[in-house]
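Fold this: ThiF family protein
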Amino acid sequence: MNDDIGISAEELLKLPKDSHILIDLRSEASYRQGHIDGAVLTHKDIRSAGSKKLIFYCQYGVESIETAAYFRKCGFNAYSLKGGYAQWLKTQDTAFDTQELERYDRQITLPQIGLTGQQKLKNAAVLIIGAGGLGCPCGMYLAAAGVGKIGIIDHDEVSLSNLNRQVAHREVGINKALSLKNTLVGINDKIDVTAYPFPFTNENAADILKGYDYVADCTDSAETKFMINDLCVQYGIPYCYGGVIGFEGQVMTVIPRKTACLRCIFEVPPSVCETCESAGIIGASAGMIGCMQALEAIKYITSSGDMLTNKLFVFDMLRMKARTVNFGGISKHCIVCNSATARR
């Protein structure tokens, strides 16, 4: 293989536009999420290239070397872009610095995310209500993914019995919201994290919610969960419900006035509800559900895949059996969905 088969992003930028054909070897989905200006997915009649350079690129500049080498053997003036699309991004004037591009590289590579999706994550604001067994993994993965603004609200303090599942906490006696904030900033110092070390109530909800466009319900009280549901529907803020006890967890995403909410399904909170204190919990179960809540948030923000809307995902982690309970949509009997008007 010739040593001069590689061409750098800087050299590419200096080439006259009519001197070469730039060919993207990645998938069509990746191309749609972002590509080098002027690049094509395929060149229909490559024989008409004449003396023009054929410059191939992939994500990291590996497969494109082999492709360029093959076309050289066929007599073409072929090159491979050094470092591929990932390296080219670092030369561009984007909203991300070089360190951020490297940090998020593996998810930018995903065709469902790309640079466009990463920008959406950076612009997003997610409020996590509850900094316990669900809120810790949810917050940690949202921070790692690059969600630009994360709020955490919890009035409780870390106790020794929390540490089997609330993996973001290291110090007993500190407020959970403040503790989780410290961990998230340690994971990613490029994001903005705000802690609210007090209860989430009907009285302070308006002031807090107005700064966020998605909510993760990571609380452990049925009454609080229904309050969060009602407020999110009333204020038109999408949210993800999560619950876990023992080895079993549940997840559901609600898009206000478009999909079923918690009251569409259960109508009222249960009169008796088991807690982690009374029934017990294995920490990994909370981790699984909290991670699913983070994933639902990421999918909503980036418009990727199918969310758990109009359905309740139930996961029995002791037997590793999952089922999805489907609902037809907003219930005509729901007192929240049928009376709510946007209050933002």
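The chain has a mean pLDDT of 93. Residues 3-89 form a domain with the Oxidized Rhodanese; domain 1 fold (CATH 3.40.250.10).
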